[in-house]
Amino acid sequence: MPLSCSQLSVFYGSRKALNSFNIDLKAGEVRALIGPNGSGKSTALQALSGLIVPREGRVEINGKPAKLMSRRTIAKQMAFLPQQPSAPDEMTVEQLVRQGRYPHVGLFRSYNSHDELAIEWALESTGLTALADRSLLELSGGERQRAWISAALAQEAQILLLDEPTSFLDIGFQVEVLNLVHRLSRERGVTIIMAIHDINQAISVSDRISLLEKGQLLFDGEPNALAESGLIEKVFRVKGNFVRITPESRPHFDIELARMPGARI
């Protein structure tokens, strides 16, 4: 397994934000983490990436304990993109993507031909070659998000962790980012785990879905099984039905406008 964890628990003070979380990701898999606000999605990603040290449990990257690896070694294998990454507006797309080579280049080594090819591949994979000289300020929301994903790809990491990659984007840009996620997994074999709010987007792009509530993993399985579980209505406190356009299509959750008391989406 490229990325897995067992019995992972994270505390914020006395509060248990993540409770005995388990997950196994296959190569090239897209996994969605869903759940209400405060359910532990971001905490799980940060614990998997090493940004938070769990009090209990272990994380393994390609079968090896992450706690025995240096940050630089982890960065060569896994890239994490937070909800709202920041960089100077005057920085160009190419300059940002070059930052992704830092785990390989370090402070003193100059860029070699392999580094340049990795940067070229990252730009090409995200459709940004023609925008390489543009500043981040000149980009649309979707283009800027693609630039950050491109920087993560330049690390040549085969594991990509995304925290709400479609948040704050118009629907067209959301689709753009989700199409990129799907293409990276299928064409490049990148393993992707992402926290995402939109249930239907999660169902449309993911191979498996993990549902969290109050730090507890309630469901881990395929989208069709989630649709049949009844957990979406229960956990998010909404009324609705899963429908299919065709018998072969993935289910789509249709929310009723009359919401239950205390609804959270």
TrEMBL record:
Gene Ontology molecular function: ATP binding
Which SUPFAM superfamilies has this protein been placed in?
P-loop containing nucleoside triphosphate hydrolases
Q: Does the keyword Translocase apply?
A: no
Q: Fetch the CDD domains from UniProt.
A: ABC_Iron-Siderophores_B12_Hemin (cd03214)
Q: Where is the ABC transporter domain?
A: 3-239
What keywords would UniProt list here? ATP-binding, Cell membrane, Ion transport, Iron, Iron transport, Membrane, Nucleotide-binding, Transport
- What main location does UniProt list? membrane
Instruction: Report the domain of life of the source organism.
Output: Bacteria
* Family under the similarity heading: Belongs to the ABC transporter superfamily.
**Name this polypeptide is given:** Iron complex transport system ATP-binding protein
**What is the organism field in this record?**
Phyllobacterium ifriqiyense
